[in-house]
Amino acid sequence: MPRMALGVAYDGSFWQGWQTQPSGRTVQDRLEAALHDFLAVAVGTICAGRTDTGVHGLGQVVHIDTGVQRRMESWVRGLNALLPDSIAVQWAQAVPDSFHARFSAASRTYLYVVRNARVRSPMLHGRAGWVYHTLDLARMREAAHWLMGEHDFSCFRSSQCQAASPIRTLQALEIEQHGDFFLFTFKANAFLHHMVRNLMGALLYVGQGKKEPSWMAELLRQRDRRLAAPTFSPDGLYLAKVDYPHEFGLPDSCERAALFSHLGFSLPRY
């Protein structure tokens, strides 16, 4: 049965995360309902990474197996006609059976946007995190240095995490400042449940002067979630990109450029 890969973008503010729930208020539920209407047959979706309630997707990738034939352009326009404004298919491509949206992924990149200002902005509600205490870029960058590479990230893992191992390899952690905005880029082979939001909480503690940068090394060594900072808001978190081997030839998402143009940033390097 032919396999199709889809690039999907969504505003997570309206949804209870990616994974299907009894309420039906998830991105997966809504996408599968649209696929059912489009193909006139029920199909299941496999995604590259499950996002939490309120987390956005700029470069989510899913695959489905179906014997129904459609033109590539029809996959995009036809599905988008059946989806709400907060979800849109960006591209569609036929892939070999060896492709798997989750297991074929070489890395995932998440972005977190934080606005650092004394007063919150209603225009950015749900789209950027907000911190009113002054943040120190140099301190956060120093803290990030301790997190790079392969570690046991138990201290940044949700108690509900179902991953078999807490070992992950953080390939990149870059922090940039653009006026009142801070942009955090996290790239890893895979992430634990709430890992990015928990890392954000700790980095922001350091940035506000509540902890020293070397605190990150202590947390990694102690492997105790109770000793770390609280989980930070999902509002400014975006699943930005999923990397696959070049042999699959998947296109890139176009939604990242739109986001950064809106916020006045240049596109990050990842």
Task: Record the SSE blueprint.
Elements lengths: L2 E8 L16 H13 L6 E2 L8 E10 L6 H11 L4 E9 L11 E10 L12 E3 L5 H11 L1 E4 L14 E12 L2 E8 L6 H13 L7 H8 L14 E7 L11 H9 L7
Largest sheet, described in full?
10 strands, mixed
Could you tell me how far the N terminus lies from the C terminus, measured between alpha carbons in angstroms? 34 Å
| Count of separate structural domains | 2
Strand content of the residues, in percent?
25-35%
In total, the number of strands is: 10
Short description:
The protein has six helices and ten strands. The chain is an alpha+beta fold. Strands 1, 2, 3, 4, 5, 6, 7, 8, 9 and 10 form a ten-stranded mixed beta sheet that branches.
Describe this protein's structure.
- Formation of pseudouridine at positions 38, 39 and 40 in the anticodon stem and loop of transfer RNAs.
- The active site is at residue 52.
- It catalyses: uridine(38/39/40) in tRNA = pseudouridine(38/39/40) in tRNA.
- Keywords: Isomerase, tRNA processing.
- The chain is α+β, with helices and mostly antiparallel strands.
- The chain has 2 domains: 3-104, 2-Layer Sandwich (Alpha-Beta Plaits); 107-238, Alpha-Beta Plaits, CATH 3.30.70.660.
- 24% of the residues lie in helices and 27% in strands.
- It has 6 helices and 10 strands.
- The protein has helices at residues 27-39, 72-82, 137-147, 195-207, 215-222, 255-263, and strands spanning 3-10, 46-47, 56-65, 87-95, 107-116, 129-131, 149-152, 167-178, 181-188, 237-243.
- A hairpin with a 2-residue loop joins β8 and β9 (181-188).
- The protein is globular and about 55 Å long.
- The model has no long low-confidence stretch (mean pLDDT 92).
